[in-house]
Amino acid sequence: MSMTRRSLVVGGAALTAASRVHGFAQAGGALTAGEVVERIKGKVGIPWMTETVDRIVAGSPEVRVKGIATTMMATQEVMQRAVAAGRNMIVTHEPTFWSHMDTTKELEGDPTYEFKRRFIAEHDVAVFRFHDHWHRMTPDGINAGMMRELGWEKNAVSEGSHEFVFDATTLGGLVETMVKRLNAHSMRVVGDAKMPVRRVVANWGYASLMPNVIKVAARPDVDVVICGETREWELVEYVQDQVASGLKKALIVVNHVASEQAGMKYCADRLRPMVPDVPVEFVASAEPFWVVRA
Fold first, then answer.
1. Which of 11, 28, 30, 228 is the most buried (most CB within 10 A)?
2. Contacts of 90 (CB under 8 A, 6+ apart)
């Protein structure tokens, strides 16, 4: 999901734009959240979808932006840290209000929803969901960030691919590398740690077995499927049955946050040239689980 790298500026237009920015700064103004969103729309490199979850889901488009925080999930804890750091616009990949569509009518009166809503209002926060278009850009922004964090660019079978080839590693070695580079604390694995691994396919975020992932997992040349989360009675059970049938297969369930987090770290880097008017930083979402060991 690489944002358009070419920026064509013709002399007179550049002078006009520069004078506007200078005058705006002198007047003490600031970008609004709506203006930030319009800049993003102009740089994604694809037509903006009519049906999309990508919108300002909380707060007003008229909020004056003091700073931007990109994050994997706009949890209450993330927003508190962002506001404390002077960042009152949150660009989040996943929902703010616990459902894919971020609908809130049915939440009215719920104490947790009301607490979060009041916090957003009292601190003049705007939350923008950046999911569909970040995935649909070329290359996929989440995949690009995850590859960079893992150091797997050289292993991709082609630019922007979700398939990776390794010369000599094992399932245990692959997991160890991922834990270290992603700082992941609650990964789960199906398969033999000593199993040689050559080809890996990553499905960052949620993976449903049907209709596509089963085709990938069944491919004879694919050793490992990686996902953020999945139903245990679908993909997990399928890979368990593959192993029991004698196939050399494995599944790595990273957890949803860790499986896409680096993509939103990368998003901060892509946003900075678009909004040089305000500071942009990445605020990590905490992994939600602590692990009980037998």
1. 228
2. 68, 69, 70, 71, 74, 78, 79, 82, 96, 125, 126, 127, 128
Condensed to tens digits (0 to 9), the pLDDT of residues 29-41 reads: 589 999 999 999 9
Number of alpha carbons in the 13 Å side-chain half-sphere of residue 270: 29
Do you find a cis peptide bond into 276, omega within 30 degrees of 0?
Answer: no
Contact 268, 280 (CB under 8 A): yes
pLDDT in tens, 229-279: 999 999 999 999 999 999 999 999 999 999 999 999 999 999 999 999 999
Furthest C-alpha separation in the chain: 71
Measured distance CA(265)–CA(142) in Å, rounded: 9
Cβ contact 179:252 at 8 Å? no
pTM of the model: 0.88
Give the angle subtended at the CA of 63 by the CAs of 61 and 69, to the nearest 5°. Answer: 95
* pLDDT value of position 293: 84
Residue 225, judged by CB atoms within 10 A of its CB (0-12, 13-18, 19+), counts as: buried
Contact call for residues 49 and 133 (beta carbons, < 8 A): yes
DSSP letters, 155-174, are GBSSTT-SEEEEEEEEHHHH
The Cα–Cα gap between 173 and 164 comes to 15
- Cβ atoms within 10 Å, residue 64: 16
Please tell me the distance from the alpha carbon of residue 80 to that of residue 254, in angstroms, as a whole number: 26
Q: What is the C-alpha separation between 1 and 40, in angstroms, rounded?
A: 13
